[in-house]
Amino acid sequence: MARTRLVKKFHSYLFKELLLFFILSVSIFTFIFVLGRLGKMADLVINKGVNLKDIVLLLAYSSPPFLTFTLPMSFLLSSVVALGRLSTENEVLVLKASGVNLRNLFVPVAMLGLVVFLAGFLNNAFLLSRSSDALRQTLINIGKRQFSIEEGVFNEFPGVVIFVDKVDSVKGSLAGIVIADDRDEGVRQTLVSEKGSLNLDLNTFDLSFILRNGTLHRWERKSDAYQSISFHDYDFHLNLSSLIPNPALRKKPWEMDIKELKKAFVTAKGEDKYDFILEMYKKVSVPCSVVAFMLLTVPLGIGRRKEGKVSGVVYSLLIFIAYYFLSALCDNTGKLYDVSPLLVAFTPNLVFSFAGIYLTAGLNDEDQRVKFDRLKRRWSRINGTSASGYPVAPPTGSPASPSTRGRDGEGG
User: Fold this and answer.
1) Do residues 331 and 231 both lie within one domain?
2) The whole model's pTM is what?
3) Same domain, residue pair 135 and 224
4) 130 CB-near residues (< 8 Å, 6+ apart)
């Protein structure tokens, strides 16, 4: 009974520490990713007059794609660091001396893993799509304000200056239009029209003026030739996609929810079909990566008794990079050889899960520590360093000392 109370108390204690590390890690990683966009946002405020409210909305709506990576990364890091601290401060040793099964460590880790899985799945399956829609709508709203034509003012666009005497916002009609077009260095054009209308295509950001009853004045600099042409109807087009941060308004597969992916899959052809169905499976497989990481974190965390917290960060980042490298490799191989998308999506999870199961076997005895040391020695032979991180001296051909043979015998 006393042991049961001890285990429950320890579960609560460890879960709180894991949660604290996790929240801190998510905040730091997400801030680092968002930091890369601050330069573009500052340019929008300074040079294009976008207000602060829209900037905050753009940053908020662009965060869910980052959470796809930062949620499992933070879970992995927080688990390894928290468990590593327990091992370094001999709290794991106290648990073993008290007769507590070390597999109980999986309980608080699994509790946090379940929370992270649900958050990751909801983010990938629902929030990501809705935030993408909201991001596009915010860009459209910014675009509408950027592309508005003010009457009685010279409206400047890249290479073009437009003056409109009267603007009827209700009817959408214009009167007294003058357009100076200097986009072509060899030709200068000036259009003068009595009236017209304006249309903006929000998919391509093409600004179209339909001019009526006017004159086109054209001067070619090289030949110094001048032309004057009267017209009854004339269409003038100007693309303004350079004035907004991201003109691509069509959703990419990873931005769609499951319903949108199914709908797109029906109408897609060739390789696009493979991309859509693979993305459907990844909506589940990526959040499920926390299961594979959970199996790795407990043996990896308690196996680092003398290496400190910094090594936990390094191990976590290396595992995370290896996971996504393997994921990218599987994606490319699957498309090239037409492998089942289900197998491609879940192969990284299976590989890392088997590695975790291997390290978890014998968690309560010294076999686990031996396996961990053996993996570090094999890695040191590959990169030419010792398990402690110092260079390994080249072999001299002399026989190993008895103590070395003894340690190798234990490791074998």
Assistant:
1) no
2) 0.69
3) no
4) 257
